[in-house]
Design a protein that fits this description.
alpha/beta; Rossmann fold; Helicase, Ruva Protein, domain 3; 4 domains; 5-stranded parallel sheet; 48% helix; globular; nucleotide-binding; transcription regulation; transcription; ATP binding
């Protein structure tokens, strides 16, 4: 039930409003002055405050500021016997939901309160969502106990409170975007947009249009003006993944943003100004790229004001069990399938892998293993075949279970069962071509 706080020094008006709101199904609490109102606010946690402008110990317009400071999610509607424009304007500036005149606007009160209650509840949902996002992208969400990882996290934490550009280095799949998000959501820009773009996913022309935008008619197909990703990220953070893949010509444009905060859109003549923090990432050695003439040296020094190197998974093998457990828990919740155990052989097989794809590859392997797992126990037999070929010890001692063809048939059948016969999705999970999958289905008579 929604709760309304009525703040008015006239007992008769409070009683009338309380009766009216009670009939509408609202729970009501009351206060006759500013001091009592703040106490009721803390004790009752109302959704909306219906407040008179003239109170014995203060002014309702000023009280709005105190209410918003004490309970930011509460919406305030001001009531006055003698409305005037300056008070109304100031009330809205102070954060009031609305400002209405007693008597003339009585028929508006109930619908207005209904809208204010809805907004107050939305404020609460938004606050919970922001907390959830903050927890999701906090540095605590980066799993691992190895010293190399903890050193990287410590550096990222230190730089997050500043506004300097950051360069994240490390192999593909080491979690560079996770680090970039953690830096953003722990910075003063956390309430603004975080925009990620993979520089290797676009051609030079398309990347320029996506990043910087264009004017209508600037090239064939440009039918209307387009905002670029830098504009979308204004006052927030832009994450440029695989920066080493960016075309040499575009690097000059990026350098200008770093130096002046402005750039010129395709087909435009006037510069566009932005206030953006840049976090870049690469799996290449940019010093070697500079020597080869593929990367600007001046851009490198502007981007790498602060560098954080992310260790490869093989350099932190002790963290594999922690990560595997977390991934298994996450996927089991999605699949509504409880995983009670990971056998020592299963974990040993994981720890002995080279993990060229790092955390991303491990995550994929755990997902695939859960799909074929039976009995809530992850064993070597549940691992993808390319790993099983080197770690064939399995608790299933049924004759024939060690034959490669039998293992492969069972594996494919389980994946197809999981995808409900969707062969394209099955081929993706199995990491084989669709044609190969059809051939094996026919070969094994699945």
């Amino acid at each position: 039930m929604s709760k309304i706080l009525i703040i008015d020094d006239e007992v008769q008006i409070r009683s009338l409003l309380a009766r009216m709101l009670g009939l509408e199904g609202y729970e009501v609490c009351q206060a006759g002055d500013c001091k009592t109102a703040i106490k009721q606010l803390e004790a009752q946690s109302p959704d909306v405050a219906l407040c008179d402008v003239f109170l014995p110990d203060g002014n309702g317009v000023d009280l709005v500021l105190n209410i918003k400071k004490t309970a930011p999610n509460v919406e305030v509607i001001l009531l006055t016997a003698h409305g005037n424009i300056p008070d109304g304007v100031q009330a809205i500036k102070n954060g009031a939901f609305d400002y209405i005149t007693k008597g003339d606007d009585n028929n508006k009160i109930i619908p207005l309160i209904s809208r204010a209650v809805e907004k107050a509840k939305m404020n609460v949902r938004l606050e919970k969502l922001e907390k959830k996002v903050g927890q999701m992208y906090s540095f605590d969400s980066i799993l691992g106990e190895s010293k190399t990882l903890k050193d990287a996290v410590l550096l990222a934490q230190k730089v997050s409170v500043t506004d300097v550009p950051v360069l994240l280095t490390g192999e593909t799949g080491t979690g560079k975007e996770v680090f970039a998000q953690a830096i953003h959501y722990n910075s003063k820009r956390s309430k603004q947009n975080f925009v990620a773009v993979n520089c290797s996913s676009f051609s030079k022309e398309l990347l320029e249009s996506e990043m910087f935008g264009h004017r209508a008619g600037s090239f064939t197909g440009a039918l209307k003006d387009k905002k670029g990703l830098f504009e979308e990220a204004n006052n927030g953070t832009i994450f440029l993944d695989e920066i080493g893949e960016m075309a040499f010509e575009l690097q000059a444009k990026l350098l200008r943003i770093l130096e002046t905060g402005e750039y010129i859109k395709i087909g435009d003549t006037k510069p566009t100004r932005v206030n953006v923090r840049i976090i870049a990432a690469t799996n290449r050695n940019l010093q070697e790229e500079i020597k080869a003439g593929r990367f600007r040296e001046d851009l490198f020094y502007r981007l790498s004001v602060f560098q954080v190197h992310l260790p490869a998974l093989r350099e932190r093998a002790g963290d594999i069990k922690i990560l595997a457990t977390a991934f298994a828990k996450s996927f089991s919740e999605k699949l509504s399938y409880a995983i009670n155990e990971m056998t020592p052989a299963f974990l040993q097989a994981l720890e002995q892998q080279p993990w060229k794809g790092n955390i991303r590859e491990l995550r994929n392997v755990i997902e695939r293993s859960l799909i074929v797992c039976e009995g809530g126990r992850l064993d070597v037999c549940d691992l993808p075949l390319e790993i099983q070929n080197t770690h064939y010890e399995c608790s299933d001692d049924t004759a024939g279970s060690f034959e490669l063809a039998a293992m492969e048939r069972r594996h494919i059948a389980r994946v197809l069962e999981y995808t409900k016969g969707n062969k394209t999705e099955a081929a993706r999970l199995l990491k084989i071509g669709l044609t190969t999958l059809y051939r094996k289905i026919e070969e094994y008579k699945i």
